[in-house]
Amino acid sequence: MDNIMATLRTPKGCLGCLGLVVVLIALFVGGLMLGGIVNENYHMPEISLAAEEIPLPFELPFFGHSVPNTLPATWLTMLLLIAVSFFATRSMKEVPSGLQNAVEAIVEMFYRFIEGVAGAHQAPVFFPLVATFFFFILISNWMGIFPGFGSVGLWAEHHGETVLVPFLRSANAHLSTTVALAIVSVSATQYFGLKLVGRPFLRRYFPFFFKSAPVEKEKPAATGFAAVIGKVAAIMEKGSNAFVGILEFISEFIKIMSFSFRLFGNIFAGEVLLIVVAFLCAFLASLPFMALELFVGLVQALIFSMLSLVFFMMATAHHD
Fold first, then answer.
1. 79 located within any domain
2. Which of 32, 104, 218, 234 is exposed most, by the fewest CB atoms within 10 A?
3. What's the total number of domains in the chain?
4. What is the 8-class DSSP label of residue 263?
5. How far from 176 is each of 51, 71, 182, CA to CA, in Å?
6. pTM here?
7. What is the pLDDT of residues 62-95, one digit of tens each?
8. Which domain holds residue 199?
9. 42 part of a folded domain
10. Largest CA distance in the chain
């Protein structure tokens, strides 16, 4: 560090820094000239809330003659994860090095984090699914800012206009992908609850089917007005328990909506932000926002996986 600072203080170092600043300013001004602020002939790309359909010269089952451009991106994300896993584990060594060392370090760090939240007993049960959520969402989010995503495609008719349909769009910028992830998370919550807690897990949905815990000492049966009040209280208790069970059912569907729309909204908003900034200034201006999107992609992957972990732990907690 001292050598770098000493070099920058020399005349050549100062001249090099000045040249770099001039180049950056020239690129920024050139980006403004080519962008939509000054260039009236530069049209802003179409922003579509739904995934664009890529026309195909043949017909596919379930899709027909077109596929959403988030589908190739989803398969590309899965292919990347499978390829990294394969090459990292094909020749396992006792003393890891290279790719195996990097992958083991990342996985171990994330496992220790899960273990610190869920505990040593539950971490091995929840880790595979939570880690899958995290790495799939993270890679999908980060791949959305790679060169070619949203910029390489073909021209096709869309709502009566000829627009560019990109071949690739971030998988989580399509609501169908985030809804599918949310359904898997909520379904896994029910699975872990039934597997680890058993039949008492159903108490949260059907509390009126389960008897209350017996009291230590039975009281003499009430008579007269007290007996009537007791029966009314018992009926009200059963009604309130039924209402609580209905609320629990509704909350599971609300989880799906909150999971899916939170992830979709943040990733789609990031794509729109990058499109608008790149339209206003063709060069350099979008780089800080790309760095911000890397951070947002990490945060969103962490939020989705951690919320899933919390719901898994709540479903498997034993309550008296």
1. yes
2. 218
3. 1
4. H
5. 9, 10, 10
6. 0.80
7. 778 888 888 889 999 999 999 999 998 888 887 7
8. 65-213+224-315
9. no
10. 103
